[in-house]
Amino acid sequence: MPVIAKHSMFDGMFAVALKPEGAFRDELKTAGFDLAKPLPEYPYAVWRACLVIAARHVFPHEPQDRAFWLLGERFIEGYLDTMIGKLIAAALPFLSPKTLVQRSPRFCSTGVSGATFDLQWLGEQEALLRMPELPYPNQHFTAGVVAKCMTLIKSSMDLDPQPLGAGGSQLHMKW
Asked: For residue range 98-121, what is the model confidence (pLDDT) as tens digits?
């Protein structure tokens, strides 16, 4: 089954959070995402290409890993303003760090289908979220999303984004 990025991901990132114009918008269209004619879903490769473009336009002076982290933070702000995201936003203030981590595979699956989100508990306050089908820069982007969610629940967490094998990613979380 191919990995698919759902429209809500593109909507949250581009229509709500970033609102690209000019060359930025044109490059997204060349990569397969036309903001004026959104599709219900896209191959994950289109999402990944659009993240690379966004990192270059929005955070041109940041190292690439940091740019993807910052895009994750911006993304979740926009995503929580989408129809699907509002369901998650309503629950966030009531979650503890552990519950947020516990629900992270389900939250991830609201925007991506055909991918595995495997949560491995390493201790009472430590877990590893494995995403074997989602390659770089996913681990840095996901770290930014989790960091922003932790801020929204008024908590903090140590996050270590890591590659997983040849084509996947993982996020080590400790609080």
From this structure: 999 999 999 999 999 999 999 999
Sheet holding 126-131, edge to edge: 118-123, 126-131, 168-174, 158-164
What is the percent of the chain with per-residue pLDDT over 90, rounded to a whole number? 91
Residue 35 contacts residue 14 (beta carbons within 8 Å): yes
The DSSP code sequence of 64-78 is: HHHHHHHHHHHHHHH
Tallying the residues shown for the chain, one arrives at 175
Return all residues near 126 (Cβ < 8 A) that are at least 6 apart: 172, 173, 174, 175
Nearest to 142 by CA among 164, 165, 114, 166: 164
Mean pLDDT throughout 48-66?
98
Task: With beta carbons less than 8 A apart as the criterion, state whether 92 and 77 touch.
Answer: no
